[in-house]
Design goal:
It is a single chain. The protein is built from 17 helices and 15 strands. A ten-stranded parallel beta sheet has the order 6-7-8-9-10-11-12-13-14-15. Strands 1-2-3-4-5 form a five-stranded parallel beta sheet. The chain is flat and about 65 Å long.
């Protein structure tokens, strides 16, 4: 059953108390014992940096600030971690104070290129910058960030070219040109998250053929992540070209699209190690139009890299073989299976015999979408280290499956989050059993579109949780 609510850490309790006071007063008034010549902001800034960052996090985690000036008052030179829930141009005046900042998250804000210019000038120690879903960020911003000669930049020098290690620019206005600027100027960069990075690298690789000296960029980049585009057709030989410039890649995300073949996937054999492999359908994917196969493309990679593989996600592939994954990938921590067809049903006999395959001992996250044969589902749920389970559109999952899983020793003992989406065979009985299981540290049960779970069930569960003072919640998951 879920654990009882515990008292929060002193840092969190203090931060919540200070946040409520700041939010209520907005620095409008202070106790009488504070001397008139004492700067009220200085009192906050004297707090330990861990506590100050927790106070700021308590404001920024809600993605809406009642008063935009609150952050302006809290920012100090000591900060090393900062996240903006919303962004205002007025925040540009904050950046001269952020010379010690290591991690900056601007995800899903209206931040634009001028902000990147300020970051490039003032944040000389920055290690990680997240600009995901910042639609106003363009190639110009990347040029300013990297201090590339560009009209309007001025003479200020960017110091972060030698420090920044991670840059996330997914779903921005940055094109291949901007990516190439980042690759060639950010000397310590090892994580560049962009769906256009494959094309950018392939173009650079092609340019080395005619370069003087030849091979200008060969093995130049230490990038560890490689994504293919979800929106563009695959250009022949792009993977091999891209990998010729960076052999440190260990995370690969492939989007299935016309033109991508098993032979392209096998170019990954040149890597030193592979930790994460994700294969998803692209936005232009057409059923039965992919030339990637499990036996011809995926299985050979698993045979070579399986023991080092920690994450495997497979979507819209035919003839997936769970037995192959079990044999080659004993150390998986994340397994995702979605819209797969073929031999799963033919493998049921392997899981019905007395000598069953060994379980995934290290598996912490499991996600299954669409029906999986019952014996295989029971086998996957028996992984003893599972902390997060997500199952969608799976009528094979029943109360009986949950009950059988729970009653077996060492199963679900580490489960913290359980998600169900459109699993119509599960009822209140199955969720009751999950909640009352005596071992797991369950914190969240998210349920969405399960027709046999009704409003009264949620009321009963939340009443039980309140009466038991459990650190758990059951919610309708929103999508």
């Amino acid at each position: 059953m879920p654990r009882v609510h515990e008292i929060g850490s002193l840092v969190k309790l203090s931060a919540d108390c200070i946040r409520k006071s700041v939010d209520k007063n907005k620095y409008a008034g202070y106790p009488l014992e504070v001397k008139p010549n004492v700067d009220a902001n200085a009192l906050i800034h004297e707090l330990p940096v861990v506590l100050l960052e927790e106070i700021i996090r308590s404001f920024t985690s809600i993605r809406q600030l009642i008063d935009a000036n609150v952050l302006v008052r809290l920012i100090t030179e000591k900060l090393q971690h900062l996240s903006f829930p919303v962004y205002y141009d007025g925040y540009l005046k904050l950046f001269p104070k952020l010379g010690n900042l290591l991690i900056l998250n601007l995800e899903n804000t209206v931040v634009g290129d001028p902000c990147l210019q300020s970051i490039g000038i003032h944040c000389s120690k920055l290690r990680s910058l997240d600009l995901t879903h910042c639609r106003n960020v363009t190639d110009t911003g990347i040029q300013w960030l990297c201090n590339v000669d560009y009209p309007g930049l001025g003479n200020e020098k960017s110091g972060l070219c030698e420090t920044i290690k991670k840059l996330s620019i997914l779903h921005t206005g940055v094109t291949q040109q901007g990516i190439q600027v980042a690759l060639t100027h950010l000397q310590s960069l090892n994580i560049l998250e962009s769906f256009d990075i494959l094309e950018a690298l392939a173009e650079l690789a092609s340019s080395t053929i005619a370069s003087k000296p030849p091979g200008l960029y060969n093995d130049k980049f230490s990038i560890s992540t490689l994504y293919t585009s979800p929106d563009k057709p695959y250009l022949s030989n792009s993977l091999c070209l891209a990998l010729s410039l960076c052999n440190s890649v260990n995370l690969v995300l492939i989007h299935l699209t016309k033109g991508l073949k098993d032979s392209d996937l096998l170019c990954l054999m040149s890597l030193k190690v592979l930790r994460k492999l994700k294969i998803f359908k692209s936005n232009i994917w057409v059923p039965n139009d992919t030339e990637i196969t499990f036996d011809g493309g995926v299985a050979p990679l698993l045979k070579v890299f399986g023991r080092s593989l920690e994450t495997l996600a497979l979507e819209c592939l035919d003839l997936i073989r769970i037995s192959t994954i079990i044999d080659f990938c004993p150390n998986l921590k994340f397994l995702g299976i979605r819209d797969v067809t073929g031999s799963l049903e033919n493998e049921r006999h392997l899981f019905q015999s007395e000598k069953k395959p060994p379980v995934f001992k290290e598996l912490k996250q499991l996600f299954c979408i669409l029906d999986v044969p019952v014996d295989i589902l029971l086998f996957l749920l028996s992984s003893p280290s599972l902390e997060h389970i997500g199952i969608s559109c799976c009528d094979v999952l029943t109360d009986e499956i949950l009950l059988e899983t729970i009653k077996c020793q060492h199963r679900l003992n580490n489960l913290k989050k359980f998600e169900l989406d459109k699993c119509d065979s599960v009822t209140k009985r199955g969720i009751d059993a999950l909640l009352r299981n005596g071992c797991n540290p369950l914190e969240i049960i998210d349920i969405y579109r399960c027709k046999n779970i009704v409003d009264k069930n949620y009321a009963d569960w939340n009443s039980l949780i309140a009466n038991k003072n459990w650190n758990c919640k059951v919610t309708r998951k929103s999508k």
